[in-house]
Write a structure and sequence with these properties.
The protein has 295 residues and is α/β, with parallel strands linked by helices. It is built from 10 helices and 8 strands. It starts with a strand and ends in a 6-residue tail after the last helix. The structure holds flavin-adenine dinucleotide.
Length: 295
């Protein structure tokens, strides 16, 4: 099984400095790769490349996320050439999140499957290509079946493996894994695991874009530690709220570790931890799960 992390390019120079340190700490767990997010319309393309370089400097493999948003064929060709020139030959080919108010990608391609086909045609086998999979169905899909058919198309167009959207509904994940195998999708599945550390961030992550189901266990953790009047308003002088935050983090970590245990028994290709650029919390999860030890 592979083991990997997702990072995002920080907005500030200080954040970039800290990230080098974070990558160093996470490398102690010998990850197979780090994937690095790419902002809508390539807004953070420069910093994305800087983070890829940091990962290369650390002696590990960077997988750059790359989207169709705002990109013409020529721009895609140019950017991908530049990634290859810098030694980055792994990518996650995505449609991309549509910026607020947009109805399409504003680029030459509308779907990730077209991007995969284009990259294969232009660059042959020079890139290893991952694609996104949504165990609960992408938020805009017509049906789960239609979404699985699209995933098969990505495989047929030359994709190598899948990285999944977060999914806390384990029964749904099992159904989806069975369904994609029945559909002839043989690509390995690296499961995206979102650590549960913060109440507001968890609710936001589930509902702001992805429409993810929060299972009963997770709902109970949220309810037990609900910060009144609402968890989106933070007041550090409120001792009771700070207590609840600490309890939420502890219960959330336990929940994340149980999820990892289950995923590891399902015949998946790998665990892809959304590291949120936080090496301490993530190291604690890895250590307590027994998934990897430091060497
Ligand atoms: P697609 O596979 O193109 O699917 C998009 C929708 O269109 C789906 O509903 C699908 O069913 C439908 N569809 C696809 N093809 C067709 C077709 N031919 N005809 C009709 N309908 C079709 N976003 C970013 O902007 N930056 C990132 O760095 C980033 N990282 C991500 C990392 C992971 C692991 C994942 C899972 C997602 C990430 N995303 C990122 C979010 C992703 O860009 C969004 O989920 C986006 O809305 C869909 O991308 P996709 O590649 O799954 O799109």
């Amino acid at each position: 099984m592979t083991f990997s992390f997702e990072l995002f390019p920080p907005k500030t120079d200080k954040g970039m400095e800290n990230l080098r340190d974070t990558i160093g700490h996470l490398c102690e767990f010998r990850p197979d790769y780090f994937s690095i997010t790419y902002g809508a319309g390539g807004t953070n393309a420069g910093r994305n490349m800087d983070v890829c370089r940091m990962v290369l400097d650390a002696g590990t493999v960077p997988v750059t996320h790359f989207t169709c948003i705002g990109n013409t064929r020529e721009e895609i060709r140019e950017q991908l050439r530049s990634y290859l020139d810098q030694g980055v030959d792994h990518m996650l080919a995505l449609r991309g999140d549509l910026p607020h108010g947009w109805t399409g990608t504003g680029g030459d391609f509308s779907y990730a499957s077209d991007l995969v086909a284009f990259v294969r045609r232009e660059f042959g086998s020079r890139f290893e290509i991952a694609v996104a999979g949504s165990p609960e169905g992408h938020i805009q899909c017509r049906s789960l079946e239609a979404d699985i058919a699209v995933l098969k198309q990505k495989q047929d167009n030359g994709a190598d493996y899948i990285m999944t959207q977060l999914c806390w509904d384990m029964e749904q994940f099992k159904r989806w894994l069975d369904a994609i195998r029945r559909a002839g999708i043989t690509m390995p599945v690296d499961v995206g695991v979102m650590p549960i550390l913060d109440q507001a961030a968890t609710i936001n992550m589930a509902l702001s874009r992805n429409g993810c189901v929060m299972d009963r266990d997770l709902c109970r953790i949220i309810s037990r530690n609900w910060i009144f009047p609402n968890p989106f308003v933070s007041d550090p002088s409120d001792a009771e709220a700070e207590d609840k935050k600490a309890r939420f983090r502890e219960e959330g970590m336990e929940y994340t570790i149980r999820q990892i245990d289950t995923y590891r028994t399902l015949g998946i290709g790998g665990i892809h931890l959304y590291a949120l650029n936080k090496w301490k919390d993530v190291s604690e999860i890895i250590g307590r799960s027994g998934m990897r030890t430091r060497v």
